[in-house]
Amino acid sequence: MYHEELSQRISSELSGHHKKAMLLWILDPAGRDATVLREALSGDTMDLRAATEIICSRTPSQLQIMKQTYLARFGTYLEHDIGHHTSGDHQKILLAYVGIPRYEGPEVDPTIVTHDAKDLYKAGEKRLGTDEKTFIRIFTERSWAHIASVSSAYHHMYDRKLEKVIKSETSGNFAFALLTILRCAENPAKYFAKVLRKAMKGLGTDDKTLIRVVVTRTEIDMQYIKAEYFKKYKKPLAEAINSETSGNYRTFLLSLVGHGH
Hints:
Blueprint: H1 6-13, H2 16-25, H3 29-40, H4 48-56, H5 60-74, H6 78-85, H7 88-99, H8 110-123, H9 132-141, H10 144-158, H11 162-169, H12 172-186, H13 188-200, H14 207-217, H15 222-233, H16 237-244, H17 247-257
Helix pairs in contact: 2-14, 2-17, 3-4, 3-5, 4-12, 6-7, 7-9, 7-12, 8-9, 8-10, 10-12, 11-12, 12-13, 13-14, 13-15, 16-17
GO molecular function: calcium ion binding; calcium-dependent phospholipid binding; phosphatidylserine binding
GO biological process, one term: response to heat
InterPro entries: Annexin (IPR001464), Annexin_repeat (IPR018502), Annexin_repeat_CS (IPR018252), Annexin_sf (IPR037104)
């Protein structure tokens, strides 16, 4: 009707964090993820943690659509950008995670679960050094329900938390990818509640993270994230956002999150 893109209008009318959040919000979910990823994998704004979080916290079907959107919007394959900006085991796990179509249902096979728990034990705690290949294989080929079961089987069999094992056996962005997959397999809402808390804790606010999480999760699991946030930190998420932000930016985020618990 008006012969101009809404995004351009928003760009010229708004500024700062409010503008950033709004420009992300007007896209469809796959477009939001693709945009955040593209920015996180671009020269001057490189943020490998954000890229890893977006990839490792998404379902296989979300990743599928997001890859198509990425190619359509930016004229390049997501895999190409990952390959260009990451390295080593971190690169291997991200490429496998976006490339392998995983099962999304709740059923698991207990025999394979036990087998995987044993394999992870042999690949990590039992030996000197770590066999990263085994970690990559299990974490990228298995469904979330399966990984959550492997985690509790591991705890049961070896009296140690898989999360602790990952922290002591791996490091850096590779460890961060494994932990993100594990935590999202067990409870994505709890994972994001933690990410939000970290973004608002201490001096200053990490607005980039705040915008990314609020805008990309609002239509997916925000009610659950709010419940987990309140359970863990005894304070409503809206209240935290209210005290950490201001102006139209605050109004906008709160309208997405919704007031109350």
